[in-house]
Amino acid sequence: MAQQPARKGKPRRKADEKLGQKRLEIRNARPKDVRGIAELVRRVYDDMPAYTHGEIRGQINNFPEGCFVAMLDDQVVGYCATMQLPEPVALGEHDWDEVTGNGYGSRHDPTGDWLYGYEMCVDPKVRGVRIGRRLYEERRAIAEEKDLTGIVFAGRMPGFARARRRKTNRVETPQEYLDLVLAGKLHDPVLRFQLANGFEPKGIIENYLPEDKASLANAVMMVWRNPYVERDQPEKKRLPRGVEAVRIATCQLQARAVADYDEFLRAIDYFVDVAADYESDFIVFPELFTLMLLSFEPKELSPVEAIERLSDYTPRLKSDISEMAMRYNINIIAGSHPTRMDDGDIHNIAYICLRDGSVHEQEKIHPTPNERYWWNIKGGDEIDVIQTDCGPIGVLICYDSEFPELARRLADEGARIIFVPFCTDSRQGYLRVRYCGQARAIENQCFVVLSGNVGNLPNVANMDIQYAQSCILTPCDFPFARDGIAAEASENVETLTISDVNLADLAWARAEGTVRNLADRRFDLYRIEWDVDGKHPGKPRPRREPLGSSSPGGG
C-alpha cells in the first residue's frame, strides 16, 4: 500500500484571522445569512439573475455542513455551496439544473461518496486576500472529515467565447480551449485558479449551463481525490438511524359562542397550557379559529362587516399569541385569521408565533371558490419555510394542501414538518384535505399535521356545521407507523392529540428508504418554475455553479 500523506495538524476553522483592523471569519452558512448571500451573488454575477431567497434557504437547510460563508466586517463577501452525491450522479452526464434539484441543493444524499460543489463566489472588491482559497480548504476539510472519495464540480471556462471570436488563432472546440490552457498557451483565470488548488480536469460537460454565455454553456469537470482514501470502487455509506425527537400537538377545536375576546383567549390558553404541560414543541390550531370572535356581536354581520370586525382584533391577537408562546415555551401555529390588508385586499393568514418571540405570517395562496364568493378573499403570492428551533417547517392552509407544487417547494427549502390548519363542513371536504395531506407526506417524505374545527356558530355566516378528524401523518415506510398515521383524534369531538415524531427517520427514509421520492425525481424532464420570489419580484435565477361548500375553508 502506498504511504498516505500526513494529515494537516492546523485547526479547520480560521475564525479569528485579521486583515488590518478588519476581522475575517469563515464559517458554516446560517439561515440568517440568506439576504447577505443573495446580495453577494447579485454583485458577483451582474450578468445573470440572482438566486431567490428560497433557493439559498434550501441549499443551507438541505446540507448545513456543506455551505460556507466568508464574513468580513460582518458582511458576506464569499459563499460556497456543496452537497454529497453518489458517484454515478456526481461523475455522470448532467447539467446544473438537474444535479442541484433546480438550485435548491435538494439532491443532497448523505450516503453519497462524493462532495459536489455547485456554487462558489467571492466579492470582486475583496479578491486578492485568498477568500476563494479558504473556501476551497473548507470543502477539502469536510471531504476529509466525512471520509469521502473526493470533490467534483463543473468549472466555468469564461474565456472560451472570446477565443472562438478571434480572427487569428481561433479556438474551435471547448476541448481545444482546455488543452491550450493546460499547455500554458492561453490564460483563463477561473481554470488556472482551480488547477492551482489541486483540481484535475476530467473532460468537458456540454450544455451544463445555457445562461453562461462566456463559456458558451460549457464547463470542465474538475476532480480532487481525497489522499486519505484509497478505493477502486465507491464505498456504500449507510446513514445511522439517529434520534431527533419533536413532540407535536394538534388541537381539534370546538367552535363555540363566547362572551368576549377574553373568553376566546382563555379557550386558546387552556390548550396551549395543556400542550406545554406535555412538553410539546408545537401546537397547531384550525383554520378560521378566530371566527368565534363574531359570536358575541349583537347581530349577524354581513361578510364585509365581519372581515372589518375581525381585522380590528389582528394586532391584539398577534401580540397575545406571541406572549403565550414565550410564556409556555412552545411554538404556536395560530390557525388562520382573515384580515383586511393595507391595500384593501382581504387575505387569510396563519400567524406562526415561536417561543423566541418572533412572529411569522403565511398567507393562504389558493382561496376556495366559497371564500372568494362570501369573503372576497384574495390569495397570497409567496410561500417559504419558517426557521424554528426544531428546524424548518411549512404551513399550508387547508385548500393549499391540495396543490402538490406548494408542498414540494417547502420540501425543497428543507421543511420536514408541514402544518395544515383546515376548516371543512362535510366529510367529503375533510377527506379531500386528509387524502391530500397523506399524499404530501409520502411524496415529500415529511410529516404533515392537520388541525380542524368541530361544532357550529349559529350567529356566524357560513359556519353552520363543521367536520374534522385531526391527525399527524407520516410517510409510509418501515420507520413509521404501518398505516402512515402517527396519531389521530376521534371524529367531531374537541380534543388535543399529541405524538412524538423522529425527524432523523425522515433523513434515513430519504436516503435509504424503500422508495425515495425526492431523490428519484426526473430533474432532466420537469421542474417547478416560480414566477416571483415574494420579497424580491423578478424572474427566477437561471442555474449555475460559480404558488362549493358552505364552509369558508371547504378543503
Automatic annotation (TrEMBL):
Domain N-acetyltransferase: 24-227
Keyword Transferase: yes
Record carries keyword Metal-binding: no
PROSITE patterns in the record: CN_HYDROLASE, GNAT
Keyword list, A-Z: Transferase
GO molecular function: acyltransferase activity, transferring groups other than amino-acyl groups
Region described as Disordered: 1-22, 534-555
Name used for this protein in its record: GNAT family N-acetyltransferase
Annotated ranges, domain CN hydrolase: 246-503
